[in-house]
Amino acid sequence: MRAVTMRDGHLDLKEVPDVEPNREQLLLEPISAGVCGGDLNAMDHTDDFLHASHASGTPLFLFDPDRDLVFGHEFTARVVEVGADVDRYGVEYQPGDVLLVSPAVIDPEGVVHCVGYASDYPGALAERVVVAPFGHVKIPVGVNPYEAAAVDPLATGINGVMRSRIQPPAGAIVTGCGPVGLGAVAELAARGITPIVASEPSAERRRIAKAFGAHYAVDPAADDPVAAWHDLAAPDQRLFVYEASGKPGVLDQLLYAAPQFTRITVVGACMVDDAIRPIVGIYKNITIEFCLGMGPDGDEYPFAETYARMADGRIDASQLVTGYASLDAVDEVFAHLRPGSYHDIEHMKILIRHDLDGPGIIRT
């Protein structure tokens, strides 16, 4: 089968061995796949990416850097084959079902891996994928199967807001308005939070953040987002910040600039050591929470809920998905999402569609 492989920071479209499902797996044919910020980090900062997985005891994202890796954990797909024992999980699947995929797979030792970050389990930048038969959302016949591939990063941002438990009359800042930050903006707007300030160097992403409900958007290279928030906020209004940029130095800047009792929820992955001065946060009673997946109280991760909001129009996918490309153009997609300057980013989300061929990115 064809797949885009990554090794030593380089991408290559080539033939790789087919994948075969076991009796408790689904064999899928990807329809549409997103390129995640995590993919960019895993390619550009491979050693740091793997160090974080080893140091935190998180095998979900471990791969062998000396072998080809096939990215793609944000995707929709069509069921090709259903393992003979899949029905024991209590969900029925049929060949032809279209799914928003939960990208988990279990190896023979019982370890859970994320397809797209596992050497033995190619992700959706390949023509076939195997996954475990749980967590998926069925996409009804007649519903667009492409845009749903953008659900996962949105859900990450929405989940960060849910974990913070923000309610009016608090206000908010979102730093970094890629798809994760955009999810945070959407959830804040849905909760009636005001003001919402978006901080993002890309002019196009600032525009989309305002379309999703941000009341004001600033370029952090020119304007301080905390100062902008103070200009809009009521006296003594509490501030919640959602750090979605993953840029080194932002967290420390927030500690110095934010007012007393600010709560910072970190949903953007910084891949390198990032120094802060804790005493500043202590004196100001600032809370920092790092956020991935469900919280300690077992709150449900909003994967299916985010899809439902996209399907019924509460989240405008036409603003979120700004381009499509084929497997032949994956290297172009990575280049567009990681240009030389953050100010030069012109896209929000580019999806790889397996029904397309040839070079170039189709702007939506």
Protein described:
The chain is 27% helix and 22% strand. The longest helix is centred in the middle third of the chain and has 14 residues, at 151-164. Strands 3, 4, 5, 8, 9, 16, 17 and 18 form an 8-stranded mixed sheet that branches. Strands 12-11-10-13-14-15 form a 6-stranded parallel sheet, sandwiched between helices. A two-stranded antiparallel ribbon has the order 1-2. The chain is of the alpha/beta class and 364 residues long. The radius of gyration is 20 Å and the shape is globular.
Quick overview:
With 364 residues, the chain is an alpha/beta fold.
Number of helices: 11
Mind telling me which CATH architecture of the largest domain this is?
Answer: Alpha-Beta Complex
Structural class: alpha/beta
Instruction: Provide the gyration radius in Å.
Output: 20 Å
* N-end to C-end Cα span: 29 Å
DSSP helix fraction: 25-40%
Number of strands: 18
Q: Provide the number of structural domains.
A: 2
Bulk shape: globular
CATH superfamily of the largest domain: Medium-chain alcohol dehydrogenases, catalytic domain
Which CATH class of the largest domain applies here? Alpha Beta
SSE run: EEEHHEEEEEEHEHEHEHEHEHEHHEHEE
Please name the CATH topology of the largest domain: Quinone Oxidoreductase, Chain A, domain 1
Indicate the mean pLDDT: 94
Query: Approximately how much beta-strand content do the residues carry?
Result: 15-25%
In this structure, how is the largest beta sheet organized?
8 strands, mixed
Extract low-pLDDT stretches.
none
